[in-house]
Amino acid sequence: MVKACPSILSADMVNLERDVRALAPVGADYIHVDVMDGMFVPNFAFGLSTVAALRPITDLTLDVHLMIDRPIRYVERFCDAGADILTIHVEADTAEHTHEALRRIRAKGVRAGLSIKPATPAEAVLPYLDEVSLILVMTVEPGFGGQSFMEDMMPKITAIRRWIQEKGLSCEVEVDGGINTATGKTCVEAGADVLVAGSAFFKAPDKAAFVKELHALGAE
Ligand code: DX5
Ligand code: ZN
């Protein structure tokens, strides 16, 4: 089944606890938490204290997406704060530091993820494929919710899915940016199995129905 992963970047910030507690009852699989440092991306969002505050109020998987420069400096602290999946960007540091950051995440018993921005070719993930549990393909420029889906990223999803299969790995392929039920279908057809949705989820009048539609995409 395709996993539905609401991004709380689009939640109501003054009612974050209410919005997070409402996710399990509507069938969400992961909670996507975007961390932005104002350097790697031109915006700020969430941080260590957010992850630590959310940990005791939900049993859902906390899927933390670090959009920060040189994440090696902070990965262990995000693991300790309560991340279940911790994703860093391949563009955010040297290859040596990226391998080491992924190793530190795994050493904490946390699932390691690696993300690529729209301008980064799929091949950039190849050296890390057997070190990660999840590859996150961005379908918008990271930094803001509510942007338009970039359909031209689909060949990257397909290539990464093929490499995972060829190598016999169990890595998930997650997509983030402009996902709704229509664009989600396109991603699943290309090979994705985890769909992040921020604005489309929080705008949906019937959130349980929205999640159900995403879940069903894999079965079509
Ligand atoms: C953007 C973030 C996304 C964002 C997606 O940089 O990584 O997780 O919340 O928002 P939508 O679904 O509105 O594009
Ligand atoms: Zn994200």
Automatic annotation (TrEMBL):
Substrate binds at residues 7, 65, 143-146, 176-178, 198-199. Its cofactor is Fe(2+); Co(2+); a divalent metal cation; Mn(2+). Signal peptide: none annotated. CDD domains: RPE. Coiled coil: none annotated. The active site is at 34 (proton acceptor), 176 (proton donor). Binds 1 divalent metal cation per subunit. One of its GO terms (cellular component) is cytoplasm. One of its GO terms (biological process) is pentose catabolic process. A divalent metal cation binds at residues 32, 34, 65, 176. Pathway: Carbohydrate degradation. Its EC number is 5.1.3.1. It catalyses: D-ribulose 5-phosphate = D-xylulose 5-phosphate. Keywords: Carbohydrate metabolism, Cobalt, Isomerase, Manganese, Metal-binding, Zinc. One of its GO terms (molecular function) is metal ion binding. Pfam families: Ribul_P_3_epim (PF00834). It comes from the Bacteria. Catalyzes the reversible epimerization of D-ribulose 5-phosphate to D-xylulose 5-phosphate. HAMAP family: RPE (MF_02227). NCBIfam families: PRK05581.1-4, rpe. This is Ribulose-phosphate 3-epimerase.
